[in-house]
Every structure is written in structure tokens, then in C-alpha cells.
Amino acid sequence: MSLLALGDLYRLCEPLGLTHTWTPPEDVLRFRAAMGHEDGRTTPVWGLMRSMGPAGLICARPADVVAFGRAHLEGGLPANPGAMWEPRVDIPNPYTLGRQWGIGWILGERSGQQVISHAGNTIGRHAVLWAVPDTGTVVCVTANGGRSGEFTRAVATELFAELDGLTVPSPTPKVS
Q1: Among candidates 68, 104, 66, 73, which has minimal Cα distance to 87?
Q2: Does residue 169 lie in a domain region?
């Protein structure tokens, strides 16, 4: 997840109890990190080059990502995270991600409830964090290889219905 600058990441990890959130591959790999997969085979490299850190080098177990999401909803961050949820840019296709971008967050709506999210992809891996501010629900789904975007959407659809009674709209068909 790339919501934070790398220096901020380290200042937040300890206070939030994020024990498995790292950026350098040598630190990530000691926690049995998965290799990415594409077309049923492991990817030729483990991850992105170090200079791409803010774009997808932050690796965390799902429990740490959920704790990070909770901190945005419940406090525990040095700044007011609500300012990050203010609409900044309209998304051209609001059916796939959300209606707008905030600062680092995708802003959307499910059954009349605000939903904020952030997704990250790297070589053969995919992760999404969703949070519903009004209910306090935080969901993280990670997937490896294949049609991981479809998988995370299916899991989110089921979880939102079960946990909050929210409906995830179907994406519009792609036009060729």
C-alpha cells in the first residue's frame, strides 16, 4: 500500500503495532513473503526496484493493513485522516473503482454508505483495503496471480453484504 511516504511508514509502524509491514525485500522475505504468480508460474523477479518504493514496495500482512485502516477510522494517526477523504479528482469510470480520488484514497459509495479504498498491485500480486467510516468495517483482501482483481471484488461483494448489508455495483462491461 502506498498511502504514505516511506519515512512516515516507519514512524507509524511501531505506534500502530504493525509488526509485519516493511519495504526492503531483505526484511519482507524473512516473513515468508509470497512470490508473485502470472499465468500459473512464479514471476521472474520478486518485486519492484527500490526506486519504486512509494508505488508498491510497501509489503504488509493483511492484519497490519486492517490495523492501518482502523487507525484512519478511529484515530491514532498524527494528522486528521478525514482531510484525505475529501474529493480531489473525478474518476472517469466510477463503476470500477469509485467516483473520485481523495489524497491516496479512492472515494466511493455502496448502498448509500461512503466507502474509502486503496489498492496496490505489484509483480504478480494484488491487494485492496476498504473501509466504511459509518460502520467501522475495515476489509483487506490480498491475492496472488491470475484474475486477482476479480477475486478481490468477489470477496468484497460477499463481505460487504454479510457485514454491513451493502451492495457492490457490477462494473460496466468493457467496450472494445
Answers
A1: 104
A2: no
- DSSP for 75-136, written as a single string: --SSS-GGGGGS--EE-S-TTTS-SEE-SS-EEEEETTEEEEEEEEEETTEEEEEEEETTTT
Q: Do 166 and 160 form a contact (C-beta atoms < 8 A)?
A: yes
Q: Is 173 part of any domain?
A: no
Q: What is the pLDDT of residue 1?
A: 39
Q: Which residue type sits at 40?
A: G
Digit-coded pLDDT (tens) for 57-115: 788 889 999 999 999 898 877 777 778 889 999 998 777 778 999 988 999 988 889 99
Full-model pTM? 0.83
Q: What is the pLDDT of residues 122-144, one digit of tens each?
A: 888 888 999 999 999 999 998 88
DSSP assignment of 55-73, as one string? HHT-EE-HHHHHHHHHHHH
CATH code for the domain of 41 = 3.40.710.10
Q: Which domain holds residue 150?
A: 6-164
